[in-house]
């Protein structure tokens, strides 16, 4: 006599959105928004962001417009606008889908607002890992790489560095990889070539099913070619390289791309300006080696200048720490502090503006009540 299997996990059908990264955290966030409401809401994931609308997967691809509530919130603070990777709650309205809510985010890649009164911009949301592409034939630019790493660490996602176009480095490749590794404390480094296949198998092994990755790098870093090689198909168009060895922007909007093994990639446009977030945790993680040295200084408030017993300066004198890396640490810490103070000032200004508006509305209501 046969007995039914007791392994119920194998018998339960997979969630229809499992291939888009659906998990227990997202389910709880959706339930908090959808349960008990007047409308029937469905979960969907944003595959590309547009002005006033988004492309969503649920699991089929659809176009959804923003509800008035979501639109007003995005106008007041663009950071809240749906972006690539976001999970949203949508409902049917006639022949269209409406985005009624953006679910709580995790692993958000944020670009610092660059104007005095500007808001931060969410480049990608619900990211598990960031693949930073640095072309072997273009440097590498370690200062830029440190900024990308700070951006990635701040998001809460794990950064991985791909030294792309490895075939163009020739005999310099070991030197390039060593230089990259010297500034990527805590992050894996892979030398890869989309043309020869070098390193692709080891990198692909990192792409676990259900995980969401984002590609980060400047134009010409070989992001699209690498993504196509990992996907085994033409998932992204590639662009020609200009005479100055810099690539042309081939990605002009954000896309959600499924990979053969079940991982997902968010491809976003090449980031021209890399501002260090005001949250200093990203800089601290990027320069963890320098911070460890700073903890050994004799004085807790050591400025790492001329104080006696400074372990940081001693490491530079002994060749343990590169002086250029120390100067970049100083620079990024100052920038993070400035951006944090600017953000705090903006929040205070907005609160004052809201307080004044509420005061005016209260006075007007009082006058109407008195019959004036």
Automatic annotation (TrEMBL):
Cofactor requirements of the protein: Zn(2+)
One Gene Ontology cellular component annotation held by this UniProt entry: cytoplasm
UniProt entry keywords in alphabetical sequence: Cytoplasm, GTP-binding, Hydrolase, Metal-binding, Nucleotide-binding, Ribosome biogenesis, RNA-binding, rRNA-binding, Zinc
Gene Ontology terms describing biological process: ribosomal small subunit biogenesis
UniProt-listed InterPro entries: P-loop_NTPase, Ribosome_biogen_GTPase_RsgA, RsgA_GTPase_dom
Domain EngC GTPase: 102-276
Localization per Swiss-Prot or TrEMBL: Cytoplasm
Transmembrane spans: none
KW Lyase (keyword) present: no
Binding site for Zn(2+): 297, 302, 304, 310
Predominant cellular place of this UniProt entry's protein: cytoplasm
UniProt: GTP binding residues: 217-225
Positions of region (Disordered): 349-372
Gene Ontology terms for molecular function: GTP binding; GTPase activity; metal ion binding; rRNA binding
Enzyme class at the top of the EC tree: hydrolase
Quaternary structure annotation from Swiss-Prot or TrEMBL: Monomer. Associates with 30S ribosomal subunit, binds 16S rRNA.
Family (UniProt): Belongs to the TRAFAC class YlqF/YawG GTPase family. RsgA subfamily.
Purpose of the protein: One of several proteins that assist in the late maturation steps of the functional core of the 30S ribosomal subunit. Helps release RbfA from mature subunits. May play a role in the assembly of ribosomal proteins into the subunit. Circularly permuted GTPase that catalyzes slow GTP hydrolysis, GTPase activity is stimulated by the 30S ribosomal subunit.
Protein name: Small ribosomal subunit biogenesis GTPase RsgA
Taxonomic lineage from the root: Bacteria, Bacillati, Actinomycetota, Actinomycetes, Streptosporangiales
């Amino acid at each position: 006599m046969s007995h039914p299997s007791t392994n119920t996990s194998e018998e339960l059908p997979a969630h229809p959105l499992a291939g888009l990264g659906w998990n227990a955290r997202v389910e709880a966030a959706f339930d908090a928004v959808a349960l008990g409401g007047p409308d029937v809401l469905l979960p969907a994931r944003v595959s590309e962001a547009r002005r006033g609308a988004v492309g969503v997967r649920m699991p089929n691809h659809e176009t959804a417009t923003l509800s008035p509530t979501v639109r007003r919130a995005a106008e007041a603070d663009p950071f809240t606008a749906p972006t690539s990777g976001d999970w949203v709650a949508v409902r049917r309205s006639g022949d269209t889908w409406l985005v009624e809510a953006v679910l709580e985010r995790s692993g958000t890649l944020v670009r610092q607002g660059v104007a005095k009164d500007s808001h931060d911009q969410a480049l990608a949301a619900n990211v598990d890992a960031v693949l930073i592409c640095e072309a072997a034939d273009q440097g590498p630019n370690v200062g830029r790489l440190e900024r990308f790493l700070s951006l990635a660490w701040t998001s809460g996602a794990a950064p991985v560095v791909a030294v792309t176009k490895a075939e163009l480095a020739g005999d310099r490749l070991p030197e390039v990889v060593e230089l990259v590794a010297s500034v990527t404390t805590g992050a894996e480094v892979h030398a890869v070539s989309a043309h020869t296949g070098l390193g692709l198998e080891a990198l692909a092994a990192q792409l676990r099913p259900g995980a969401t990755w984002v590609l980060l790098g400047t134009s010409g870093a070989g992001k699209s070619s690498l993504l196509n090689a990992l996907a085994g198909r033409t998932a992204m168009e590639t662009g020609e390289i200009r005479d100055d060895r810099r690539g042309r922007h081939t990605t002009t909007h954000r896309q959600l791309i499924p990979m053969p093994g079940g991982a997902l990639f968010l491809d976003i446009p090449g980031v021209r300006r890399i501002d260090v977030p005001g949250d200093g945790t990203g800089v601290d993680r990027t320069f963890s080696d320098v911070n460890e040295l700073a903890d050994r200084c004799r004085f807790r408030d050591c400025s790492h200048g001329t104080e006696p017993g400074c372990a940081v300066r001693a490491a530079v004198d002994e060749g343990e720490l590169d002086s250029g890396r120390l100067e970049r640490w100083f620079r990024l810490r100052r920038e993070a502090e400035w951006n944090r103070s600017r953000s705090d000032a903006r929040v205070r200004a907005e609160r004052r503006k809201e307080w004044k508006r509420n005061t005016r509305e209260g006075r007007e209501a009082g006058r109407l009540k008195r019959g004036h």
